[in-house]
Design a protein that fits this description.
12 helices; 314 residues; alpha+beta; 45% helix
Length: 314
């Protein structure tokens, strides 16, 4: 599969990216402080998580909701279907809809650990900001995928640094968090590519918004048989148009999307609720244990029992 992947970086041309003048050294210092001895820290700021790895990681599969992802040090690779997105401290990632992703850290060491953050995006707040009468018009038209990489700019980096710095003064978080996050949303909306991505997902009439409604329905009914006609009806589209636009946004088919939701949920049931593979498979909608085991191993690289045991030992 790796040879078939299309790779996307934050570069806007074929030449090497220029680093933003505000290289995230300060941000790296802050994340390093808060993550010592931890792989992931859920912070006192709602929706903000800090991440640290001291060696490259194995691919990890998960469902990823709308987020801003930013790296202060290191390199990470994200796979959506057969497309690869690579980013580092020069760039950032935005996902505008929930997507089944595979990701792994490619550059990290004890001397120079991978340091990053994820910030959950509030689509309702972005929508309110979009309707502000003084917000400039978008500089580009609708984009395709529900995820993309862009070059990190000093204004966006500065806003993110100020948000993370609030962890030093927790009493100020309720006062300044919303103001700084609103600025971050503004910076994203002004980005040529990410702005178009976020705008089209909150506009009710857009194709992306229609597909997002269908994705929400799939998440709630993932254990039921998949019928394209019914999904297309929820999206307000024809079956052929729905299938085409769904793949354009997610890079995979609706059936593949449902399969990944099911397998991720089965993994959670086995890991967090101690279900065996047979019961987990049944609860997420599989009728054949053999098919479940085969597809689970294909997605996570190990049979269910072996995979869960290795996760419990981490």
């Amino acid at each position: 599969m790796m040879k078939q992947e299309r790779e996307t970086t934050g570069s806007s041309s074929g030449t090497e990216q220029e680093r933003p003048s505000g290289k995230p050294l300060r941000l790296a210092t802050m994340i390093e402080k808060w993550t010592r001895g931890e792989h992931q820290v859920t912070t006192a700021i709602p929706g903000l998580a800090l991440h640290r790895r001291e060696s490259p990681t194995e691919p990890s599969c998960y469902m990823f909701s709308p987020h801003l992802c930013l790296i202060a040090q290191g390199v990470k690779r994200i796979l959506l279907g057969e497309e690869a997105y690579v980013y580092d401290e020069r760039s950032f990632v935005v996902s505008s809809v929930e997507l089944p992703l595979v990701s792994y850290v490619t550059e990290a060491s004890p001397e120079k650990p991978y340091l990053g953050l994820t910030l959950e995006l509030d689509v309702k707040e972005i929508s309110k900001l979009m309707h502000h009468d003084r917000l400039p018009s978008p500089r580009s038209g609708p984009t395709g995928r529900g995820i993309g990489v862009s070059k990190l700019t000093p204004p966006l980096l500065n806003a993110v640094e100020r948000l993370v710095s609030l962890l030093e003064t927790p009493e100020e978080i309720p006062i300044f968090r919303n103001l700084i996050q609103r600025e971050i949303y503004y910076r994203l909306l002004m980005d040529e590519e990410q702005g178009a991505r976020l705008r089209q997902i909150v506009v009710a009439e857009s194709r992306s918004s229609q597909i997002a409604r269908a994705i929400d329905w799939m998440k709630e009914h993932f254990d039921q048989p998949l019928h394209i006609k019914e999904l297309a009806k929820h999206a307000g589209m024809s079956p052929s148009g729905f299938h085409q636009h769904f793949r354009a946004l997610t890079a995979i088919s609706p059936l593949q999307f449902q399969k990944r939701i099911r397998l991720n949920e089965a993994r959670r049931l086995m890991l967090q609720e101690n279900l065996d593979a047979g019961n987990a498979a049944f609860q997420v909608g599989y009728e054949s244990p053999t098919q479940f085991n085969r597809e689970y191993k294909r997605m996570f690289g190990k049979p269910p029992r072996t995979d869960i045991k290795s996760l419990q030992e981490v």
